[in-house]
Amino acid sequence: MEDNGNNAGFFESTYNKLTYPEDISEDDHSFNLNQERQQVSLSTMWPGSRLNRYKVLAVSLAVLAAFLLAVDIGLGVYYLRLSYGNHLVTDISTEIAKLQATYNTALQSKTEAKQEVAKEIKSQQITKWELDHLNRRKKDNEKLIDRTEMEIAMLESHMPMLKEGCRQCLPGWTVINSMCYFFALSEELSRRSWMDARHFCKRQGSDLLVINSREEHMALAEMIKMSRDPSRSMSQSGFWIGLRDADVEGSWTWLDGTRVEEGYWNIGEPNNQNNEDCAAMYPRDNPFNSWNDAPCNWNLKWICERTPRPFSSSLNV
């Protein structure tokens, strides 16, 4: 037993010498103790720590799998959306192509319609020009007919005198419808007032013109229109006729006492603008607008009228 005790003492002293040498500091001693404790702790806790690591790894894998699944699902959704978008783009492109084709067709139709309208407008313009041309020809033909009718009437008026002799009207007089007319056309005869012109006619055994029919008026209107001097104004180109309203204003009466109901007045006439009591005939294109009232003291040309008779005297100026 003493040997055992000695051995124990020997080991203890040896351990103490190994474990707590005199030259080791207190800090180194603490470090060694902590290291030994850690070694003991690791040796005692190793199996449980390993299990926890597996659990953490499994959870991490599960989370990673879930994340990958979510990513996969997202990619699938994105792919589906992308595919749908591609289909949508394709559909839109198809619709745009259809609309473009429709637009092109409509544009072509519009162009053709414009061409047709332009062609129709041109055709209508030509028709209008042709109508205007025909209207002008119609007016010319109407004038020609009126002139022809007047010439026929004048020729017919000469028939009785041709049978009885050609000296029934005085020299310088014109026969129309079996009546003799004197037109004061010569510049040797000065223009005169209405009363002086009537005195001239009286000296020739006649009187100022009295119009009894439309045919007579048309023939005389044509005569003074053909004899008009273009160098003179219209106001100086009138011819006194035997018509006035000196007795009753507005009551126009011929020298033979016949009252005029309508007559062949110009538009707006008679207007008695300057105390105009005598009537004159003017060479207008429209014979139905050839009369004007005028002051009786104006100096104008005149027309005398008389029935035919055998020539027995000369013209007295």
From TrEMBL:
Keyword Acetylation: no
Residue ranges crossing the lipid bilayer per the database entry: 56-80
Annotated ranges, domain C-type lectin: 176-305
SUPFAM superfamilies attached to this UniProt entry: C-type lectin-like
Gene3D superfamilies found in the cross-reference section: Mannose-Binding Protein A, subunit A
Entries under CDD domains matching the protein: CLECT_DC-SIGN_like (cd03590)
Tagged with keyword Hydrolase: no
Pfam families: Lectin_C
Coiled-coil annotated spans: 96-151
GO MF annotation: an example: carbohydrate binding
Stored InterPro entries: C-type_lectin-like, C-type_lectin-like/link_sf, C-type_lectin/snaclec_domain, C-type_lectin_CS, CD209-like_CTLD, CTDL_fold
Keywords assigned by UniProt, alphabetized: Coiled coil, Disulfide bond, Lectin, Membrane, Transmembrane, Transmembrane helix
Protein name as catalogued: C-type lectin domain-containing protein
